[in-house]
Amino acid sequence: MTTVLDRFKDFYPDEWREVLEFFVGRAYFYSSPTALVCAYPTLRSLVEQKKYEMVIDNFDTWYIHYLAGEVTEVFDIAPHVTKWICWQRNQSGKDVFIEYEKLRRRYGKQTESTKDSTDGRGSAARTAADHAG
Predict the structure, then answer these.
(1) What pLDDT, on a 0 to 100 scale, did the predictor assign at position 60?
(2) Which of 62, 77, 81, 100 has its CA 20 to 30 A from that of 110?
């Protein structure tokens, strides 16, 4: 069985240790048996200028460098809510922005209070593979 860490190592076959060290030491890293995420706080305006820089204070965006596994779990452990979440599509290299709350309503853990803010269907756990494309 392939684990989320195995998928991470496959994605960065020659540099996975360096990527891991960067995010563990300076940015945000979370790993469990079912989810792995590498992200850093930044500003949407910087990303739009193709300046991929970490911002410590007054950030409005989580830039997702890598995500595998259960998206629901990632929302459960996110240390800060931001206005935006951004990631880069592998095929096009285009940066994709979506409002944090919109994504949380779709993929986040649903409680009775949050279920009312969705379309009533609640939310099923989805994997990062659901986002590919």
Answers:
(1) 96
(2) 62
